[in-house]
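User: I've been trying to design a sequence by hand for this structure and keep getting stuck. Would you show me what you'd pick, starting by listing the structure so we're on the same page?

Assistant: Good idea, let's start from the same input. This is the structure you sent:
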């Protein structure tokens, strides 16, 4: 009984430390409050087309859970982030770009992150240069 209570309190505290902001557009996409062109979803992750595509195939793949960026990901997020990573090649295959695609995570404003709900860009369908800008 006490252990159950403690677990509940710990969960509540974790939620406080990692809130789902009312103004997070990707949380709104998860909740279906903002429409998106979804290509895949399951109980843990969601993949949809970027509104402003930078390649013929440009998906955003993210956990349903609000994690602001890679810097905020903790040990509890290993499973969902691992699941996300191993789903990427399946999505690339589904969209016909498995022979070459790029996965990008912008972490922090300096790196170009503009939406602070962790997401991975999957880009394909054109040749790409290196290093990125
Ligand atoms: P970031 O700059 O944070 O790495 O990537 C955010 C991405 O989200 C950008 O490529 C931007 O085009 C995309 N984006 C922003 N708002 C929306 C939206 O409401 N719907 C969709 N599908 N993409 C969005
Ligand atoms: Zn969010």
């Amino acid at each position: 009984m006490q252990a159950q209570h403690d677990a509940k309190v710990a969960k509540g505290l974790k939620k406080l430390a990692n809130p789902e902001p009312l103004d997070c557009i990707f949380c709104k996409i998860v909740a279906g409050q903002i429409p998106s062109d979804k290509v895949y979803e399951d109980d843990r992750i969601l993949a949809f087309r970027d509104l402003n595509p930078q390649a013929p195939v440009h998906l955003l793949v993210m956990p349903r859970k609000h994690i602001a960026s890679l810097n905020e990901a903790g040990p509890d997020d290993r499973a969902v982030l691992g699941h996300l990573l191993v789903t990427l090649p399946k999505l690339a295959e589904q969209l016909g770009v498995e022979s070459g695609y790029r996965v990008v995570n912008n972490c922090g404003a300096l790196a170009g992150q503009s939406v602070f709900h962790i997401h991975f860009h999957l880009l394909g369908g054109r040749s790409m240069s290196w290093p990125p800008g």
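That's my pick for every position. To get oriented when you compare it with your attempt: The chain has a mean pLDDT of 91. The pocket of guanosine-5'-monophosphate (ligand 1) is lined by residues 25, 34, 36, 48-52, 60, 106, 112-115 (CB under 6 Å).
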